[in-house]
Amino acid sequence: MGTQAITVRIAGKSYPMTVETPQEEETIRKAERQIRDRLKMYEDKYAVTDIRDLLSMCVLQFATEAMESDSKAGSVEQSTLIRLKAIEQMLDATLD
Question: Contact at 8 Å (CB) between 22 and 37?
């Protein structure tokens, strides 16, 4: 497929982008909707109208969620390594 030009609108401003695949476009469109929904939620919940404040709140929330996700992934990875080490020790004991 080649590249395809799309336009993303965030906070009333258009951003031209290019995508390589339909899946990439779908992911970007989903992110666009999430940003729009989060901005609307903050605007309604906190009666904030300054777009910079809304965008800052949105960025902070997404960054926090990303950090929490990374932390959980690291925790799962560490847990998996511990289990694999225990299995390896059992196999070593059985083979000796």
Answer: no
Buried/exposed 12-28: b ≥16 CB within 10 Å, e otherwise: eeeeeeebeeeeebeee
Residue 59, both tokens = 């960025």
Contact, 1 vs 20, CB < 8 A? Answer: yes
Report residue 82 as tokens. 């511990």
**Is 96's pLDDT higher than 70?**
no
* Overall residue count recorded for the chain in this entry: 96
Q: Domain coordinates of the chain in residue numbers?
A: 4-95
In contact, 51 and 27? CB cutoff 8 Å: no
Using N-to-C axis directions, what is the helix angle for 51-95 and 22-46, rounded to 10°?
120
Q: What is the pLDDT of residues 40-76, one digit of tens each?
A: 999 999 988 899 999 999 999 999 998 888 887 777 7
